[in-house]
Amino acid sequence: MGDPSRLRIILTCARQSISVNDIAEKLELTQSLVSHRLRLLRAARLARGERRGKQVFYCLADSHVRRVIADMVDHVMETEEEC
Q1: Is the dihedral of CA 4, 43, 51, 13 positive or negative?
Q2: What is the per-residue DSSP string for 28-80?
């Protein structure tokens, strides 16, 4: 998750199941970059793909990953007073 484009892809997949083309368009990245990043995220078991016809739609791997991402976002949004 240290790479900004991977993190943006993770956050996009957290919202909905989405195709490579739609991720690339939404994040203004190339399709090949998105595909490469998704391959790394699948290997790390953070994302999974589901084939629907000719397209593959990606989402977060499971509820554990969803919770980790949600906790990370909450942590980043905390103010110093909340510590």
Answers
A1: negative
A2: T--HHHHHHHHHHHHHTTSEEEEEETTEEEEEESSHHHHHHHHHHHHHHH--G
- pLDDT (0 to 100) of residue 21: 96
Q: How far apart are CA 80 and CA 83, in angstroms?
A: 6
pLDDT digits (tens, 9 = 90+) for 1-56: 678 899 999 999 999 999 999 999 999 999 999 999 999 999 999 999 999 999 99
The number of distinct structural domains making up the chain is 1
CATH number reported for the structural domain that contains residue 27 in this entry = 1.10.10.10
